[in-house]
Write a structure and sequence with these properties.
CATH topology of the largest domain: Arc Repressor Mutant, subunit A
Distance between the termini: 82 Å
Oligomer: single chain
CATH architecture of the largest domain: Orthogonal Bundle
Number of domains: 2
Radius of gyration: 34 Å
Order of helices and strands: EHHHHEEHHH
Length: about 170
């Protein structure tokens, strides 16, 4: 039996006509649509492997595999595993001109159980000012040290600070 082949409807064999349904199908990525069109451009029974696809595109193996899985999930592509003497030999890819309904696997059936979602709290909750120690001009004059072991401020800072205190109301 042949393996690593691509199969498509015979009416699309010698030229590339891409069914419009792939472009109108919602929920499929542009990359998967492009891969589908590229696969359709090959003649039937052309040898097709993931390595061959990777050699054409600059995407890696994982990206190509995820796009193939997307096409399989949407029903545009069927991938059948071929075994030779009980050992894996490759895949055959069957392109569909209409999306086929794909039966979900057991893992997908259990994954479709909806869970309750919890609305997360805000990342930066609104804060309130709990500081009741208001600075007034009188307190400011008393608390600025003149000659002590605490840090000394130059005259520009000492002149500018009262101005900034006046810019904000006492509550802030």
């Amino acid at each position: 039996m042949e393996y690593n082949k691509i199969y498509k409807p015979k009416k699309f064999d010698r030229f590339t006509i891409v069914p419009n349904v792939i472009f109108r199908h919602k929920g499929i990525s542009a990359a998967a649509t492009g891969l589908y069109c590229w696969l359709f451009s090959h003649e039937a029974k052309t040898e097709m492997t993931v390595q061959f696809i990777c050699g054409h595109f600059k995407d890696g193996k994982d990206a190509i595999n995820s796009r193939l899985k997307e096409l399989i999930k949407s029903g545009f592509l069927v991938r059948k595993e071929i075994r030779k003497n009980g050992k894996f030999a490759g895949y055959n890819y069957y392109l569909n001109d209409k999306p086929k309904k794909v039966k979900p696997t057991a893992a997908e059936k259990t994954a479709t159980v909806k869970t309750a979602t919890v609305k997360p709290g805000p990342v930066n909750p609104q804060q309130s000012n709990t500081n009741t120690n208001y600075i007034t001009k009188e307190i400011l004059k008393k608390e600025i040290p003149t000659k002590s072991k605490t840090p000394q401020y130059n005259s520009t800072v000492l002149k500018a600070f009262p101005h900034f205190v006046e810019l904000f109301p006492i509550q802030y």
